[in-house]
Design goal:
Elements lengths: L1 E3 H4 L9 H10 L3 E8 L4 E13 L7 E6 L4 E6 L9 E11 L3 E3 L2 E3 L2 E3 L1 E3 L35 H4 L4 E7 L10 H12 L8 H4 L13 E4 L5 E10 L8 H9 L7 H13 L3 E5 L7 E6 L5 E3 L5 E3 L5 E4 L4 E4 L3 E2 L12 E8 L1 H11 L4 H6 L5 H17 L4 E9 L8 E3 L2 H8 L5 H10 L3 E3 L2 E3 L10 H12 L20 H15 L3 E2 L5 E2 L1 H6 L4 H4 L3 E2 L10 E2 L4 H13 L5 E11 L12 E11 L5 H15 L5 E4 L6 E11 L2 E9 L1 H6 L7 E6 H7 L15 E10 L4 H12 L3 E10 L8 E10 L8 H19 L2 E2 L2
Parallel strand pairs: 12-15, 26-30
Antiparallel strand pairs: 1-11, 2-11, 3-4, 3-6, 4-5, 6-7, 6-10, 8-9, 13-21, 13-22, 14-21, 15-18, 16-17, 18-19, 19-20, 23-25, 24-25, 27-29, 28-29, 30-31, 31-35, 32-33, 33-34, 34-35, 36-38, 36-39, 37-38
Helix pairs in contact: 6-7, 7-10, 11-13, 14-18, 21-22
Length: 800
Amino acid sequence: MKASVEWLKEYSDIDVDSIKLGDILTMTGSKVETIEQKGNDIKNVVVGKILEIKKHEDSDHLVITQIDLGNEKVQIVTGANNIKEGDIVPIAKDGSELPGGVKIKKGLLRGVESCGMMCSVGELGLDIENYPGQIEHGIMILDKSLEKELGQDIVDVLKLKEDIIDFEITPNRPDCLSIEGLGRETAVSLGKEFKNPRKNIDELKVEDKKNIEGLTVDITAPDLCYRYIARMVKNVKIGPSPDWMQRRLKACGIRSINNIVDITNYVMLEMGQPMHAFDIESIKGKHITIRRANDGEKITTLDEQERKLDSNDLVIADEEKAVAIAGVMGGLNSEIEKDTSTVVFESAVFNGGNIRKTAKKVGLRTESSSRFEKGLSSENALRAINRAIELVELIGAGEKIEGKIDIYPTKQKINEIKFDVNRINQLLGTNISKEEMTNILEKLEIKVEGDKVVAPYFRMDLQCVADIAEEVVRFYGYDKLETTLIKADTTLGVRNKEQKIESKIKQTLVNNGFSEIYTYGFVSEKDLEKSNIDKEVIDKSITIINPLSDEYKLMRPTTIPSMMQILEGNNNKKNLNVKLFDISRSYKNMNEEIEKGEVPLQENILTIGMYGDNIDFYVLKGIIENVLEEAGVSKYDIEKETKNGSYHPGRCANLKVGIDIIATIGEVHPEVLMNYGIEKRVYLAEVNITKIVRYAKSNKKYVEVPKFPAVERDIAMIVNEDVEVGQIEKIISKKAKKILESIKLFDIYRDEKIGIGKKSVAYSLIFRDKKKTLSDSEITSVMDGIVAELEKTLGATLRK
């Protein structure tokens, strides 16, 4: 927010220079970014009148002029061809300085003395666009009325001296996006009285009407438009704004357009309330509706760009069309033209979040939208529109029509906060008296009423005791705060259960020769299809509204595509042996959480990817078993998986606790490998750390050294090819009960001699009883039971 010091002086007596003022305002919370001091680089340049011009005898292009400077006459030699006798021009005298460090001294030009230089617009560091009629490569010809100013400093005559302060305003202080707000801050910071030049506006009463000259207004989206006020001006005379208004607008970085548009911009800068002006002839049916846009509705804005809207956007519309994107920019179809005679002024307050989203979507961030998105006061809207009407009459741009249309469905809440002096001092580490706090707050127009404070209408950011404490300390002085020790209990930071398990898993994998990678949480639909992800999983993916690119359009519902992309890159770079792991999140919209405004399912997933020499399914299985052991998960079942499209149907398994799948491991499906251009076997594992945490047992129990000997037995059986070893192990464990200490698969054998579609499976079993030595008869009884159950359930036959 730029503000000229000259404008700020309307609100307080500023008795310090601009640099000092900037320092003071920064210390009270209004951070100053830059201070531009215009006119200081022009010295000893005055107004002069050309009395005589005669040709230089030794030059074809130079002329000798006699110049009247009021109290003296000087001779200047120049090559300018746009001057004539009687012209009023800026004269840089001997010893003068111009922008850029240029110094002018007396000298000889072709033997003739020249005591200075006539100046062009550019040589004075001025913008030629602000001086109509001047030429770029010629002397600046001043208005004849300035003849009475001969000899006077050009900086004063043209009012070039101006100090402009550029503030960095925090998002919670939209009131300071105005000269009025900054003027209030300036007055309190300097310890001066705040002058309210708009006091007459505050006291003005304007009659409410439902209809003004046939104009009516209604709001159909009160959740997005909190207040809408319309006033009208007739017999409008479109023309340039007065110099003082143009100068102030320019200082704040806004170009002058015409008197009506300039008034809306001037009020926005002065009072912080964006406004808009419509030509009444452009409002079909003279009826204004503030409504949601229709899906696909289009409007051409004042910058002549067509914008496409939807029902999330708010528009100002007549009976046929939208005439403005609310809070962002007006439509070209309602622009103020030279022949406009009746104008409707609009002052409204919209939902800040909605304005921000619309501005971002249509690619238009304007001075108006940047203010609305921070949240404006509904009470200020009336002051602003009355000020605009006052300015219209002040500069003779038209005649006001009595009355206003004021639709105010959502009243602004008055914030009342407990005035807890002890709590404020506790927060600040100070001992400020209640009287001193009250004095500071009341200067800021924050009313103190007993044990509560009432925030003024323009300070919607004041909502709790901490906010009041901030206001107090800003003007009490940060430099007065004493250095004190922190008054707080220290705590020891520790990892939670999931973090501990994650750390153990990482260390286990690194010890097994794996390298950790980090992957994006975004994928494209094409990535999911390349990895043969099931449609059911794809349907649960979350679409990003504003993706970085089409490659990152979805939040990934599975981590497989991310790992396959990295493996593909390594394969393309001829890395022969690759062992990688990644711990990151997957995101699934399981029960339409996104549509309900809730958080979707987020699970922490360990993804392992590897290929190379001496790597197969059983190596991967062993690694996962090590991981689960380190995590504290000991009881789980392994089941064959054939429906997961990303894995080879005969070389994939799920690890389950009950019915909960905690991991999926296997060889990548050949189609997926072909999609990624990989011509070797690749193995993947997905381990759900979020689920593992539920079943992990972190407390390890001491087990005493066995007192009684173990008994080892081997058993080999012939079963059908489709029988899984997990089924066999379940039966053995069930029949052996508590005396089975361990079970180890040591052989799987296939041969035509044992039968087509058959396989031989052999286990080593170790039995032990903690309370006694097992006898042969006890072991034989258990083994007989195991064999019988295997025969009955799986059709197994004992191999002899």
